[in-house]
Amino acid sequence: MTAFAHVATYAQLPLRILRGSDCRLTADDGREYWDFYGGHAVCIAGHSRPEIRDALAAQADALAFYSNVLPLEIRDRAAERLTRFAGAGMEGVFFCNSGAEANENALKLAIQRTGRTRIAALTGGWHGRTLLALSATTDAKLTGPLSPLLCDCVRVTPNAMDELERIDDSVAAVLVEPILSIAGIVELSPEFLQGLRARCTAVGALLIYDEIQTGMGRLGRPFVAGAHGVRPDMLTSAKGLANGFPAGALLMSGEVAASVKLGDLGSTFGGGPLACAAMLATLEIIERERLCDRAAQIGTGCRERLCVGPVAEVLGRGCLIGLRIPTGAKPVQEALLRSGFITGTSADPTILRLMPPLTLPQAAIDELAAALTSLVRGAAPETAPRAAAVTRERL
User: Fold this and answer.
1) Contact at 8 Å (CB) between 30 and 387?
2) 203 has pLDDT over 70
3) Where does the pLDDT of residue 259 fall: very low under 50, low under 70, confident under 90, or very high at 90 and above?
């Protein structure tokens, strides 16, 4: 067996992680790191939560899997709990396995419901690698080779009110991230979201919020859906939905849910017992520990502390933060990694992205601020401490 058995399709950071606990990761050399990336916004309640481990073990002992050919009580409970958590008029849910699948099925439903074959999305949006989701994605490297297979997509510039008229009665749905994450933490204004809602209603298009990164409490509320008086027709969730166990969900208004017929959607593994158990445990943690409130506090702490060193501006809110670094984010990411911080970049080369667990302590923000400050002073970055030398108090 060779090192090449796992096909190299990802640019990877130069370290091997053996274990994680809350917001800390330990590498194979014993060094510890603050995780400001969360496995790409996935570990929303922290790493290796015993409540989720125990929920998975108990469910595996009872029933590890059965498909949707049989009703399952745990699937029904997960659907009820998730729609109640989401609010914003979301009354139905279809479970799948990933964010791309959730977006694919949302767009499929919109096309089925309207009979139209065009969609609309924002320039800079990133929605997944399946064909309909990819049609709405701005990434020429991915879309170029597949362009003959992609759906016709109308592009609108984020926050450009004068471009909303491009969405006409030929458009089945508009798919938007309330904060465009990969584009560089581009936040949509309340006025633009309200304008989108009004335009979709006027032309009969469905409004879909892609909340794969912005949902599950990350921005200080369950989802953006419902904020600013805007209720989308559908919203999609994944990533933090089950805190690392693969799960995706398409939530829909009562009207859309009532229009779905037998056979319109399907997934062998979607809504499996283990995924539902992890989902229920994650929702329990978020609500019991008031992690929505905690996310808002983390966002405030980042804005107050992190505009230091090479950082010219702090973007975003909650636990979806962008640090604008005019000299370039990549060298700063590399220096921070040497100092013991895992962070992310974006399609904008000046934006360093932070997507930590919602349990991140203030001490981590303070230490990151100190590390950033040392960069501008030219101080040598500290080596990440070894696990045996560090004791962290769990929130």
Assistant:
1) yes
2) yes
3) very high
Whose structure tokens read 């609500």?
287
* pLDDT band for position 1 (cuts 50, 70, 90): very low
Contact 21, 48 (CB under 8 A): yes
For residue 306, the one-letter residue type is: L
Q: How many CA atoms lie within 13 A of 232 on its CB side?
A: 26
Name the one residue in this structure whose structure tokens are 């914003």: 88
Cα 161–162–165 angle (5° rounding)?
A: 100
| Cβ contacts of 185 within 8 Å, gap of 6 or more | 179, 315, 316, 320, 321, 322, 346, 351, 353
Q: Whose CA is closest to 344, among 42, 20, 30?
A: 42
| Contacts (Cβ under 8 Å, ≥6 apart) of 161 | 191, 192, 195
Q: Residue holding tokens 């790191």?
A: 33
Domains, the chain, ordered by start:
17-45+290-389 (3.90.1150.10), 50-288 (3.40.640.10)
Q: Indicate the residue type of 395.
A: L
| pLDDT of 340 strictly over 70 | yes
**Tokens at residue 335, please?**
């220096």
What CA–CA distances, in Å, run from 319 to 29, 296, 356? 29, 7, 6
Q: Which of 258, 217, 251 is nearest to 234 (CA)?
A: 251
